Amino acid sequence: MASNSERFRVKAGSHLLLMKNGRIFMLRRAGTGYGDGMYALIAGHLDPRETMRENIIREAREEVGIGIRKNDLKLLHVMHKIGRAEHGLLIFYWTTKRWTGTPENREPSKCSGTGWFDQNHLPKNTLPQTRFALSEIKAGRTYSEYRKW
Fold first, then answer.
1. Residue 20 and residue 27: Cα distance in Å, rounded?
2. Where are the domains of the chain?
3. Which of 32, 41, 109, 135 has the largest CB neighbor count within 10 A?
4. CB-based burial, 56-88: b 16+ in 10 Å, e otherwise
5. pLDDT per residue over 16-58, tens digit each?
């Protein structure tokens, strides 16, 4: 049996599907080393001692300056992202119909633009993982597996 230090690790994160009038709010990644120039949802990794809802509330505030209450979040989907790295990633996809503030780029070192996009006509430069997750959510599936290699 493998020791604890040799066991496979799974990290966790959250993404926010922020919608208004059939349009999805997305960010164009920049300067992160992953998916730069591609559009993605508001997102981030879980910090120590943070719940999944606290995670996406914090990320939404940090990335785009909006406020969300825990009870206004609805869990839509969970994706198990499997990659070549030494860890996997569980991604929780949330949505809300209520928030305070107007979404804007609050992290220009990590984001080179934002926009509201028709859910049926996403930008060509949308991250494949994001496109896949949105298609799974649209199909009503609550769980998916995404392999990146």
1. 15
2. 18-148
3. 41
4. bbbbbbebbebebeeeebeebbbbebeeeeeee
5. 999 999 999 999 999 999 999 999 999 999 999 999 999 999 9
| Spatial separation of the C-alpha atoms in residues 147 and 137, rounded to whole Å | 17
CA distances from 60 to 5, 115, 127 (A): 33, 15, 19
At 38, give phi and psi (nearest 5°): -105, 150
In this structure, which CATH number among 3.90.79.10, 3.30.1360.120, 3.30.2350.10, 3.30.40.10 belongs to the domain 18-148? 3.90.79.10
Pairing assessment for the beta strands 39-40 and 23-29 based on DSSP bridges = antiparallel
